[in-house]
Amino acid sequence: MAILNILEFPDPRLRTVAKPVTAVDDKIKRLVADMFDTMKHAQGIGLAASQVDVHQRVIVMDLGEEGIPPRVFINPEVEVLDQSTNPYDEGCLSVPGFYETIDRPAHVMIRALDGEGNAFEEEAHGLLAVCIQHEIDHLEGKLFVDYLSSFKRQRIRKKLEKIHKQNA
Ligand code: QAP
Ligand code: CO
Fold this sequence. Notes:
Blueprint: H1 26-41, E1 46-48, E2 58-61, E3 71-80, E4 85-90, E5 100-105, E6 108-113, E7 119-124, H2 126-139, H3 150-167
The structure holds 2-phenylethyl (2E)-3-(3,4-dihydroxyphenyl)prop-2-enoate and cobalt (II) ion.
């Protein structure tokens, strides 16, 4: 078990497109365990492998909803089920301290492999639908700030670059 370093915007490595997992083997299971440790330590609800500089299609999620266990999504896909959208105030462990309202499809079908490599599908709305779309974006090298105006995105970039310089 290990706490991994989380890449922060505007790190160019966050723009890497992740590759499909070909086998859910011990190496992937170790990655999943380390991603859960890392997400809990950082007090996140979702984390994509891209954020810890591993460019494979793996997502962990713990929405902290009562009775809903932590989840693993390997090679996830979503199908948008209707035209409704849902505004949600999104944050990101790779964009710490910034939250912005993003509109996304409200109702999706998720298809993925679980942590044992078994295929499943799950209909999603609410926070689960928001979070899976946010995390799949990471696997495509996309961040929530990409949905903002370039003015807002540059402002966030400059503020984070200043913090990174101070921490260097
Ligand atoms: C993605 O985000 C998400 O700025 C997961 O200082 C967020 O876990 C999907 C976090 C909202 C849907 C809705 C952010 C922690 C955690 C911060 C996270 C921070 C500390 C973000
Ligand atoms: Co994120």
